[in-house]
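Entry type: protein chain
Record version: 2
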Amino acid sequence: MRGERLRAQGTEHRAQSTGLRAQSAEHRAQSTERRAQGSEHRAQSTGLRINGYLNMEDFRFEQLDIWKEAIEISDTLFDYADKADEKRLFKFAEQLRAATMSISNNIAEGSGSFSDKEFASFLNISRRSVFECANILYIFLRRKIISQEEKSAIYYKLLTLSKKITSFRKSLI
C-alpha cells in the first residue's frame, strides 16, 4: 500500500512538475513576445523598421536626390572603368572608380554630420570629385577608351549633378 501511495505521489509530482514546466515555457514565450512587440513599437516610432523590414529611409542620405543621382551616374562610370580594365589601363580604371565612389560616399558621410557646416564641407569634396570624373572622361576620350557619344552622355549628367550639389550646399550655409 505504501509503495502504491509513493508511486501515486511521484506521478502526481511529475505531473505538477510537467505543468510547471509548461507554464514556465508559456511564460517565457509571452515574455519574448512582449519584448518583441516593445522592440517593434520602438523601431516603428523611430522609423527604423516596418513589419520587420528595414525601411529604406534609415539614413538621411537615402532621401537626397543628389545621392540618388550620384549612385545612378556611378553605374555608367563603373562601366567606363571596366572598359579601361579591358585595355589593361588599370590605374586609369581605379582612379575613375575612386573618384566616382567619392561623390556618393561624401554625400552619405556628410549627411551623418551633426552640423550643416560640416555637411557642407563633405558636399564640397563630393562636388570636387564630380570635377575629377569629368576630367578623367577627357583623358578616357583622348586615350580612345570611350567615344565622344559616351563622354557626352554622362558629361551633362555630371554637370547637372555638380550644380545640384552646389545649390544644396548653399542652402545649408
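Comment: The two ends are 93 Å apart (CA to CA).
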